[in-house]
Design a protein that fits this description.
The chain has about 350 residues and is an alpha+beta fold. The protein has eight helices and seven strands; from the N terminus they run H-H-H-H-H-E-H-E-E-H-E-E-H-E-E. It folds into three domains: about 70 residues, no CATH class; about 70 residues; about 140 residues, 2-Layer Sandwich (Heat Shock Protein 90). Helix 3 packs parallel to helix 4, helix 6 packs across helix 7 and helix 7 packs antiparallel against helix 8.
Length: about 350
């Protein structure tokens, strides 16, 4: 302060008072009081600054918490709107819910309980379905065994009849026995197909390296390829899979390409393209072709486009099921009298592998 204040006070004092010792003591006391006031003022200002910073931080924190709570409430509103859309509440009162904190908690608690109950029922149904599937699979095995046994007996008996009475039977008798044996073979093929179809996907697939190039060579050595058909293939990869299932897949498609090729010079070509995460195979032929209206229907069980006794009507159903088991898809392009190309994909890392 205080030099200016002293000067101002002394200005109005007489010379006698200016030199008065008691007055000097008074002025010094005033000066000290101002010093004390300044110190207190500084302390108060400092305290106010500290309090202001603390209040600012607390206010910011409260604001952040309020923003977070608003975000939570907005999300809860979105959840409620979603639940309204799916109409989960039987009493249809969700539209009248007041969005207070308590009501939100109660509403979500009720919906959570309902969802848990639905999931329990779903799991119970899945367990029951798995049990029924197991029973059906066991039944398929039992029926296939019970049916194949008499079929083998019929086939053996007709073979003996043909051999033992070949000199007695006329052409009509021999034709009838041949027809019986053909139908027995057809029934045996059908039973085998049903059994194979029912077992696909029943157990976890085994995964190991399969050389597709060698697999195709083994298939070609095990089936009959007519001389008028020229078979070619590109270099095929080693893939992850189960050799038995992959053999079923390729053999069914190659077998169909041979079976339904009506050209004087038949052509079958097998190839593959690397599509990064999966292999895309194709089997192309120049056979009869398929009308577009049947593109989806041919993959249905027991559907045959023509009455071929060698066909069970289940081969392409097996093919589709195997492809889907490996996480892939199958489709075709075809023109009648020009040919057909089947495409299918197989994941490089099937389900259950790294």
């Amino acid at each position: 302060m205080n030099s200016l204040l002293k000067r101002q006070i002394r200005k109005f004092l007489s010379e006698e008072l200016k030199n008065n010792t008691d007055l000097k003591t008074f002025i010094n006391a005033v000066d000290l009081s101002y010093n004390n006031f300044d110190e207190q003022s500084v302390m108060i200002q400092r305290a106010m600054a500290i309090s202001s910073d603390e209040l600012y931080s607390a206010n910011r924190k409260l604001q952040q918490e309020a923003d977070e709570q608003k975000e939570v409430i907005d999300k809860l509103k979105s959840v409620i709107n979603t639940l309204k859309f799916y109409d989960l509440k039987e009493d249809k009162t969700s539209e009248n819910i007041e969005l207070t904190g308590s009501n939100l908690v109660d509403f979500i608690d009720n919906q959570t309980k309902e969802i848990i109950e639905v999931n329990k029922q779903k799991q119970s149904m899945l367990n029951e379905l798995a049990h029924q599937n197991q029973e059906l699979s066991d039944y398929a095995h039992m029926v296939s065994h019970d049916l194949k046994s008499p079929l083998r007996s019929i086939d053996a008996l007709t073979a003996w009849l043909s051999d033992d009475y070949k000199d007695v039977l006329d052409a009509n008798g021999k034709s009838t026995l041949h027809l019986i044996r053909t139908n027995v073979e057809k029934m045996d093929t059908l039973i085998t197909g049903i059994l194979e179809y029912s077992t696909i996907g029943k157990n976890e697939i085994e995964i190991y390296d399969v050389d597709v190039d060698k697999l195709i060579d083994d298939i070609l050595n095990s089936i009959h390829i007519p001389q008028h058909i020229n078979f070619t293939k590109t270099k095929l990869p080693i893939i992850k899979g189960d050799k038995y299932r992959l053999q079923q897949l390729f053999q069914n498609l190659i077998g169909n390409a041979i079976k339904y090729n009506d050209k004087e010079h038949g052509i079958i070509n097998v190839g593959v393209e690397d599509k990064h995460d999966y292999w895309q195979f194709f089997i192309q032929d120049n056979g009869k072709g398929i009308e577009e209206t049947y593109f989806d229907k041919i993959f249905k069980t027991f559907l045959k486009l023509e009455n071929n006794p060698e066909s069970s009507g289940i081969g392409l159903s097996i093919v589709k099921k195997i492809v889907e088991l490996y996480g892939g898809k199958i489709w075709l392009e075809s023109q009648v009298n020009i040919g057909t190309t089947f495409y299918f994909t197989l994941k490089k890392a099937p389900n259950g592998t790294a």
